[in-house]
Predict the structure.
Amino acid sequence: MTGGTTTGGGTTGGGTTGGGTTGTSGTGFIAAIQFTRGSDSIRLAGGSLTGGVPLSAAFTVEGVFRFPAPNTYGVLTSPPAGANIWEEAASGTEDISVYLTSSTGFGAFWTGSASSPGNGSNGGITGPTLPLNTWVHLAWVFDGAQERIYVNGALTSSVSLPGGYPPSVPSVNTALGYNSGRGDIPPSSGAVFDLACFRISSVARYSGASFAPPTSPWSPDANTLLLINPSAISGDPTAFACPGSAGITATFAAGIGSATNPSWRSY
């Protein structure tokens, strides 16, 4: 496969080739956040959309994650299909999520209704089986006409979506893991995972067949809507500001009482 390109503060070419999942080396990572239960949650709130990130003509949702094998954290089975890594939902109108399609699969989905912007159509994409107990870079990219999934820099799935994704609607409830503040939509289960870095951008940062996955945390740039970098956060706070133009604050276990705190750990 030919080398791809990253946009906005990234690197060019190289990376993995074929459909492989060579692990992220993570030489510059120090800390991570650990979600050990399906109820662990970080609520993302603030800004004009009450926690929503204004996804528009192009975006990238990405992170460096580690998914444990069953029973690694005392969890006998992994969360069910549909368990969220990240979700942005507006009551009764719109739901955008990055989730586990099964205990070892990965996917992304948007659904809307007639009351939300755009045509109310659905868009979804699924990726491959993920490696367990190793760090992996996942990226969901939309360039205005096509959505793509990359795993450790390798393009694994692509879907044409010429109608595009409409921007997020107001009064959005957003969370990593368990989303407990979704208004009239029932709470959704969170996945079990470790998080070393998470970023949402207002551009399609990756194109082509492959690119070099990150080996250290990102720094915010002009295209960053939201950045969570545990390695740059001092102590073990349960709330912190997220760099990026969306003006988001991250709070552990916010929302309804059934949400629980994730924990801090070394990388």
